[in-house]
Deferrochelatase
Amino acid sequence: MEPKSGISRKDFLKLSATAGVGIALGASGLGAIMEVAKPAKTPSSAPGESGGDIIPLYGTHQPGIITPQQTYMYLASFNVTTKNKSDLITMLKDWTKFCDLSVAGGTMKLSDNALVPPTDTGETLDLPASKLTVTFGFGPSFFMNEGSDRFGIARMAPLYLKDIPRMPRDQNIDKEISGGDICVQVCANDQQVAFHAVRNLIRLSTGHASLKWMQEGFASGTPGKTPRNLFGFKDGTANKLHDSSAGYDQVVWAGDNELGWMQGGSYLAYRKIQMKLESWDRTSLADQEATFGRSKLSGAAFGSHGEFDSFDLSKLPEKSHVSLAKQTKQQIHRRAYSYTDKVDPRTGNIDAGLLFISYQRNPDEQFLPMLKLMQNNDALNSYVAHVGSAMFACPAGLKQGRYIGQNILEA
Ligand SMILES: C=CC1=C(C)c2cc3[nH]c(cc4nc(cc5[nH]c(cc1n2)c(C)c5CCC(=O)O)C(CCC(=O)O)=C4C)c(C)c3C=C
Ligand SMILES: [Fe+2]
């Protein structure tokens, strides 16, 4: 059934219920998704309407990588618990069907049986798609787990996938919030829509995988302008340098030296970085700007005027953050979100910082040399501590009718 455009999630639900399409509950109560409805709206609807809020799940590349940043993000990492490959496939199929429906603003059909829990948790019933994207990635332990090729896919591991090696300033890295077999990056312009997606993906993983860790982030900025991080600086300016199809091919998308499933995919590098807000806030403006090598107000590099102006590297302090990144002569595509958490009752300091995420086609060449140089020399080091770390390989875009990871598990 092809729903009409302009209808709400709730209307669509009613329609799908009448037409007898939707999702049947399995024996567990959460169960496998047996049948899903077609997308509730089309991506071509006018902006402002729900349809204009749709980012397609299918395409050459996964959504959520070069997609302009939405306001909210959940990053969740799962460990696969089932030893059975077909169980794993069931979960990935259910996830795919769920994403197919939710990114289009649809909702799983509630049960007709009042005696069992509703299939969908319901908090998005009246909400539009909100540019929801779900991006999947696979960690090194997905392919080879503690020396065991448990799903017979070790030969399918991509060229550069490995845990980020221990860095000089990694003494605060917490293993509990690092790594994992599968990561899911969920982004949307409505936090409830993003949460609904991650929550239901967790529900659908029951019996197949367990949630290892989850992080929640936000990015705030005027549309079309670079958002500022919690140090008050524009963060993401240099992404403009590769903002073209050729630029993304050069910086982001894995090439034809990779196995087929990874060509057009990308490597996700993740660092959870605490930012010492209290000590930063006691730092003079001049020192803050020298830390990055850019003006706080305009975002312009030292010696230039506008945020996006080219600049002379010799005008920046040698150990400034931007200078170090430039010295590597590499580019990465950053898609970071801020986070805030609890206050330490002993010091009154806030646990807040950056969920640093970057995408690149070759982390060995692009990301790791940059991280190493920064860990050794960065002026920013006085104000930050890295506490979480992970790397995942995100497959190429999905074709309709296929499930995420199919090209790895059924090759
Ligand atoms: C290893 C890669 C990087 C880490 C880790 C990282 C952490 C980090 N960055 C900021 C704030 C800013 N970063 C900026 C630029 C920038 N950062 C990286 C890489 C890492 N950052 C790169 C490659 C660049 C681009 C450099 C260039 O080519 O010009 C900036 C300047 C504005 C911008 O371009 O975005 C800011 C500000 C924080 C706060 C942080 C850890 C908490
Ligand atoms: Fe940076």
Notes: The first strand starts at residue 72 and ends at 80. Residues 1-40, 44-50 have pLDDT under 50 and may be disordered. The chain has ten helices and nine strands. The longest helix spans residues 85-102.
